[in-house]
Hints:
The model is unreliable at 225-235 (pLDDT under 50). The chain contains two helices and 22 strands. Helix content is 6%, strand content 50%.
Amino acid sequence: ETPTPTETPIPTPTPVIAADEVIGHPGEFITMPISMTHFTPPGIGALTLDIGYDPAVVTPEDCYPDPDSQFDSEACNENFAPGVVRLSLLSTAGVPNDHLLANLTFTATGSIGDVSPISITIQTISDPAGDAISTVTQDGQITLEEEPIMMGDVNCDNEINTIDAMFIMQFEVGLRSSSDQCPPPSDAIFEPACDVSGDGQCTIVDAMFIMQCEVGIPNAFCPVSVALEASPLATSQTANLQAGQGVVLPHGQIAIPITANMNGNALGAGAIELHFDPDIVQPAACDVDPNNKFDLAVCNLNYAQDAIRFTLASTQGADGDLTLATITFDSVGEPGESSHITISAPTFATPQGASIPAALEDGRIDIWSRLRVYLPVAH
């Protein structure tokens, strides 16, 4: 006779109550799920758990018991004891199978690299008849890691838009400071997120790239078009940048234009710093981009005791003969004195981010005791 094969019984999985392994970031909320799996009918009738955590790393904020609405009653105390959350659940019919028992919410109060073990200790577990259920526990943990930087998001609002471009331009002229904190203080930018152009600096070029991305123009930060790869990374054409000159009476005012001849280049981003003698002239007003050739323009008359700085950005680029700004000065010196208006290390770049060399011509303001008027000689 052929022996009857013996069927190998399939082992029944052991019921498990488990915490998860979660990665969080310092200062943020973290959700820790507590789950039950492999519970055969009739399942859990009564359950009390102690959930341990490290109070030096995380702080409990709230507890949401029975999110699947399987039990008849539930209670959770996130402040049961230092380092312990207590969870209790009851069901007259029993809850079998796999379900979430609770979601715990913590605030990450530790530092990068800290780890809080999440321990599961069963105080009571039984079926609806009051019989104990053999159960294993699986501990979890919360690990705090550095949050990835969203490049371009210098105000840390989880968006990259023209506000970030404006803040970078304000930083460029000294109206905002830099910070390694995210979110930054109200008068600063989160500088580690600034360099979207990849040149290792936080400049007006980064603001221009963000503005281009906002309106769908491809660049190195948002390269949606392969055509950009063929764009030149440098230009051999030199632009001419000039500060105006003029004469003024004592205690008078004079407007000095700052102009550029682009010589075939398109100016996408510009940052210009002007130095003067503060004992002879003082800046009174700055009309940056008076002809509205650029998308954004920012000026800081108080960049330094002896300096003004302004920035301009255009997504498409501005070419030809440009008036970049008109600076109005008050004369505070004596007749016969003069102040050079010196252009210092300007940044000029094309809309593709390529540097544009510039030939510089400084300006000058002379204070005269009286303005000379020349009349035609009658013959």
